[in-house]
Design a protein that fits this description.
It is found in: Secreted. The protein is α/β, with parallel strands linked by helices and about 375 residues long. The chain has a single domain, classed as TIM Barrel, CATH 3.20.20.80. Helix content is about 35%, strand content about 10%. The protein has an eight-stranded parallel barrel. The protein has a two-stranded antiparallel sheet with strand order 2-3. It is globular and about 55 Å long. The two termini are about 15 Å apart.
């Protein structure tokens, strides 16, 4: 049975009445499309997983700005089910640069939505106090989470930055006249030491205060109702207690996730058992609390292992009956000959990636239908 036939059989007469679904979504005023996306991602995760690629349609290996193109599509014939963007350009630059970024991102999100795909946004947030980018610069960066929290010296500036994000969120209107939902993933990998918001430079209390303010201000004051909020540390935890050490609370998080490159072959280090153990902690928390869960970032740079997709990534995702809504691999740089995480035509792992694509467990954009409709779980 082919992939389409599998799902036509599996999803025959699959209807869930909204009244029987107790949502863990934190925005009770979320748009109908955002509520539908949340519900359908939760349902889909019980049987399969969406594939996502960062910056998939903005650029790829050796190209940039081409219309209707992605490296994933060039290999499989389909865009990824989910496209990753970044809010990094919505602050820290000139007004002209920010305006151009907004328009470029708006078109990207709207195009994805109009095709029936999903958008997730990371935020490599330039330090608003020391103006030195998002990576920590020794001797230059400031410990700015304490400065942007309520009462901090940079709090009013932070509110202006959030206003830019809100204006963008309320501009992504599809051809049906509806706002496109976005999975927003701020302050990711906060348990590491490479970003200025990292654990060594930010107290637990300040991190939680900033997170809670960010969600409340966007949702309640600026009236952003098309965001799904994702919490994603790196892979430095081994227990649920460690995973939740900086968790801001179920009232401020829609999705729990994990970024994990270290267990998936980085520097030749493969530890599938450890990856499964950590990812199961994430999945179990989502199941217990009716939250979405995801492998929010992973990948193997240059993909030197030609069977990495089926023998590493897919094996982990299919283990332990985990319920994960998506898996995202990182970007394909337009100039670097080695910095890429998805295959392109001729790349050694392309045949295995096609097997990954054709597996009924994985969902790409061609597989999605009506994911923004509440009463129909639409695949094919």
């Amino acid at each position: 049975m082919n992939k389409k036939g599998y799902y036509n059989t599996l999803y025959t007469v699959t209807f869930l009445l909204v009244g029987n679904f107790v949502s863990g979504q934190i925005d009770k005023d979320a748009t109908k499309e955002t509520k539908a996306l949340y519900k359908n991602l939760k349902d889909i995760s019980k049987r399969s997983i969406l594939f996502a690629h960062q910056h998939a349609t903005e650029y790829g290996h050796g190209w940039s700005g081409d219309a209707n193109r992605s490296d994933v599509k060039s290999v499989t014939g389909s865009f990824p089910a989910m496209v990753g963007i970044d809010f990094s350009g919505l602050s820290g630059g000139s007004e002209a640069d920010i305006k151009k970024t907004k328009e470029d991102l708006r078109k990207n999100v709207v195009d994805t939505y109009n095709r029936g795909g999903v958008t997730t946004a990371a935020w490599h947030f330039s330090n608003p106090a020391s103006k030195d980018g998002f990576y920590l610069s020794e001797g230059i960066s400031l410990a700015s989470m304490s400065l942007i929290k309520p009462g901090g010296s940079k709090h009013e500036e932070y509110k202006k930055i959030l206003k830019n994000i809100a204006d963008f969120a309320n501009s992504v209107i599809g051809s049906n006249g509806k706002l496109a939902p976005i999975i927003f993933r701020p302050y990711h990998e906060f348990d590491g030491e490479w970003f200025w918001w990292g654990k060594p430079y930010t107290s637990r209390e300040d991190f939680i205060a900033v997170w809670q303010f960010t969600v409340s201000y966007l949702r309640d004051t600026l009236k952003v109702h098309n965001f799904i909020y994702a919490f994603s540390p790196d892979d430095k935890f081994n227990t649920e207690e460690e995973f939740l050490e900086r968790f801001p609370g179920n009232d401020y998080v829609d999705m729990v996730g994990m970024d994990n490159y270290g267990d998936f072959g980085r520097d030749g280090n493969y530890n599938i058992e450890r990856a499964i153990k950590k990812l199961k902690i994430v999945s179990d928390y989502g199941i217990k609390n009716n939250k979405l869960a995801a492998l929010t970032e992973t990948g193997l740079e240059s993909i030197p292992n030609p069977i990495w997709w089926t023998e590493t990534l897919l094996k982990v995702l299919k283990s332990e009956n985990m319920q994960l809504s998506y898996v995202l691999v990182w970007r394909n740089d337009t100039q670097s000959p080695t910095h890429y995480y998805a295959p392109f035509p001729g790349q050694d792992s392309s045949p295995d990636f096609l097997k990954f694509y054709n597996d009924p467990f994985t969902i790409f954009e061609k597989d999605l239908k009506k994911i923004y409709k509440r009463k129909f779980l639409g695949i094919f």
